[in-house]
Amino acid sequence: MAGPDVFLPDAVAVGRRKKELCAKYGFEGLYPFDNEIRTTSQGERQDRLIYRANEEMIRRADFGICNLTPFRGPGADAGTVFELGMLVGLGKKVFGYTNVVDDLLDRSRLIYTVTLDRGQNEWRDSNGMTVENFGNADNLMIDNALMEYGGHAMVRHHASSNNLFYDLAGFETCLRLAFQAASTSL
Q1: 58, 86 in Cβ contact below 8 A?
Q2: Domain ranges in the chain?
């Protein structure tokens, strides 16, 4: 399980609920807070220890489910995207969901100044850079990685703004997809 859920004030409780849902489908959920991080006598930085523990957890996982709900901007959490890329790089199945149904372009237009360059028929931000307009939930690399390595488009679920990171309907849909994928590969 990857996602910005770890930044919630009650992240451990959210992780516990996700693990319960995993068990319902016959999976063992691996949640970042399962790692016990202790600083060493050599004074290693805590962030480095967290990175190593999370990387090891990704390597142990059979597949990943990524919460790609926009976080601190119009796109997914950078750490979650890194973990998705690592899963793909390791050749593992990966499923993803977002609790915001709007396309990346629509979300970008709500946050930034984005205008249509009619001559090029492209959307551009205030720096003149192209803003993707493929109808994807996020960057084309993210959406297409899910198609290539999970066999499904990103699950888009509309959650209320006050429940954005607590609504687990999209997560459970990904569990069903993972269960179906596991059942057909037997």
Answers
A1: yes
A2: 4-101+137-184
Q: Mark out the alpha helices in 26-156 (DSSP H runs).
A: 46-60, 78-89, 104-111, 140-150
**Half-sphere exposure (Cβ direction) of 171: Cα atoms closer than 13 Å:** 23
What's the topology of domain 4-101+137-184? Rossmann fold (3.40.50)
CA distances in angstroms from 52 to 44, 47, 57, 102, listed in the order given: 11, 9, 9, 34
**How long, in residues, is the chain?**
186
With tokens 């001559």, the residue in question is: 119
The series of mean pLDDT values per 10 residues for the chain, 186 residues long, is 96 96 97 72 81 94 98 97 98 98 96 95 95 97 97 97 97 98 81
Helices assigned H by DSSP within the chain: 11-24, 46-60, 78-89, 104-111, 140-150, 169-184
